[in-house]
Every structure is written in structure tokens, then in C-alpha cells.
Amino acid sequence: MKRVHYTDSYLMNPQHPVTVNIIGAGGTGSQVLTGMARLDVTLRALGHPGLFVTVYDPDIVTDANIGRQLFGPSDLGLNKSQCLVTRINNFFGNDWKAEASFYPSVLKEVKRTEIANITITCTDNIKSRLDLWNVLAKVPSSSYTDNNTPLYWMDFGNTKTAGQVVLGTVPKKIKQPVSTMYETVGSLKVITRFVKYARVKEVDSGPSCSLAEALEKQDLFINSTLAQLGCNILWKMFRHGMIEHHGLFLNLETMKVNPIGV
């Protein structure tokens, strides 16, 4: 029997736009934000309230970002999150929010309005992922679901030519409907359960000074390819109300994509 995960019912029929936090607005985050804007427009055209996105990133645009990330020469010196969100808002007519800061690393520093239904991490370090899970896993459970209830965490990570996307459930279990056609799966592993990051030594390579140097660390289209594939998982969640795969491994050297079944 085929295994599937049914999307949390709140996301399918919310009272407000579904809240999304994107943490990191660089190579992957800038691409994911554009994907979320397209998803928002499509959902609203289908009668859904759409999305409300907040982007967190304290970094500014440098010469090395132009070309590999979605920034141009006129963006130099601007904060990444503010630059991208302003552009998206002007283009699509949204009122999404930019935070020129890191996402809080401990729960006591997080305001309730900073908790989103879907959190998407596009960061390049291990600590941010561990800190985020320490926050999300400790959010008190509630008897009802609203736009400040954490439901899913999607993480993007990559090396120079390979990477992965993993969508996990924040609650221990998302309630699943009774099905005679499928084996339903209410719990999806988050990235920190796939990879034991606590055992991995953090390597800080530092910022790149030029595009050529940046390309030695990450290939030109690895970020955008991962972003498209990851956003497609979210699209299927909303469009079909279920997913058979909650992640994937990508290798641009071999041109292979290996899905992760639920």
C-alpha cells in the first residue's frame, strides 16, 4: 500500500494567509522567496487565502552575490532580506515582511508573531539549524491551530554540486484522515533527525570576495535547482492535499534526483 502524508487540514482551509518564515536570503533563499511569491499568486487564484512571508537575514549584498544570487549592481550595500522583499512586494503587490536580523536562537526571545506555520531554512551553517529546532520543538502545543502554530520545517542544504531538501513535521504527529487507499504517515523526520549535526564539526569558510571565488564553493545552478524542487513539494502539499515524498537528494554532477519517501 502506498504511503502518503496528508497536509495538515489548517493549511488547506486557513482563516488567514498561511505564515511562512524564510531564514536566509542568499543563493537558495532568494530563489525560494520567488517561488513562494508564485505559489501565493496561484493559491489565491484558486480561492485560498495564500501566504504571508517573513524573510530573516542580517547580511548585505556584495559583489560576490551578483550573478549567483538574485541581486544586481544597484543592490550593493543593501540588506538582502529588505532588498528582496521590497522587490517582491512591488512586483506582486504583497505586504510581506523583511527582518534585517538573525532569527532568535532561544524560545524566550521569540515573539508569538514570529512563529510561522511553515519555516524554511536556507542557511549555510549547522548551528542555525540546531538552534531553530531547539526553538520549534519547545513551542507549547495548543488545542487549536492558527497562523502562529508551527506545523512544518523545510530545510535546504548543499555542497558545491549536490544538496538535499527535507520537509519535516514540527508536532510529533499531524492528524491524518482514515484512508482505505493509502497508508497514512503523520510524522515526517526533520533534517536534524536525518543528519546528526551535533557530531559534525562546523567549518566557517567565510565570505567570498568575488563571484569566481564563490563559484568554487557552490556551483552556479545548485541553489536555484534545489529551490525549484523544494517549492514543488510545497505546491503538491497545497494542490493535492497530500505528498508521497517529503524531500530529495540532488547531484548535479550525475544529474540524479533521489526522492525521500514519507
From TrEMBL:
Which GO molecular function, any one, fits this protein according to its record? ubiquitin-like modifier activating enzyme activity
* Residue ranges of every copy of the THIF-type NAD/FAD binding fold domain listed in the record: 19-136
Q: Record's InterPro entries?
A: PRTRC_ThiF (IPR022500), ThiF_NAD_FAD-bd (IPR000594), Ubiquitin-activating_enz (IPR035985)
Under the heading Gene3D superfamilies, the entry gives:
NAD(P)-binding Rossmann-like Domain
**Pfam hit, one:** ThiF
What protein name does the entry list?
PRTRC system ThiF family protein
